[in-house]
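Entry 14. Ran structure prediction on the chain below.
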Amino acid sequence: MILEGRIWKFGADVDTDAIIPARYLNQSDPKELAKHAMEDERPEFIKEVREGDILLADKNFGCGSSREHAPIALKAAGISCIIAKNFARIFFRNSFNLGLPLLESDEASKSIKDGDQVQIDLNTGEIFDLTQNKKFSATPIPPFMQELLQDGGLIPHLRKKGLKRNQRVPKPKP
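Output, structure tokens:
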């Protein structure tokens, strides 16, 4: 899967309260949550973000509370992928469960600039900065997680597999 979009760059340790402030957690509608994504970090974000844009951050993106509201808000705002040096583990899992791909790349996190246009190959983990004409590598997404993304997240994936509530999920094949 190939993605292309403009970069929104953020720093290190961006927590879930920065992604979606706690004062909006009484809402569950993705479109309503999206209206407030990153509003305290970069007020212009929600007014200027476009469908397919890509978020880039330093280390420990998504730390803090384990709320699903954070990846829901970013995905509903139009973010197609997030690249960071690394992610908080619960945010990582929540994002994939909701169908939002994440890539870990220290070199891309350091080198790509805010506003750069990038192209990402989710199959190989290759990130190409079209603005700077530079190529970076990320940890590739394992095939079973790529399938999860292609299906739109965990719930649509399980429905596609025909699994019903409370049914055991078979282990993925290596």
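The chain has one domain: 2-160. Will compare against last week's run tomorrow.
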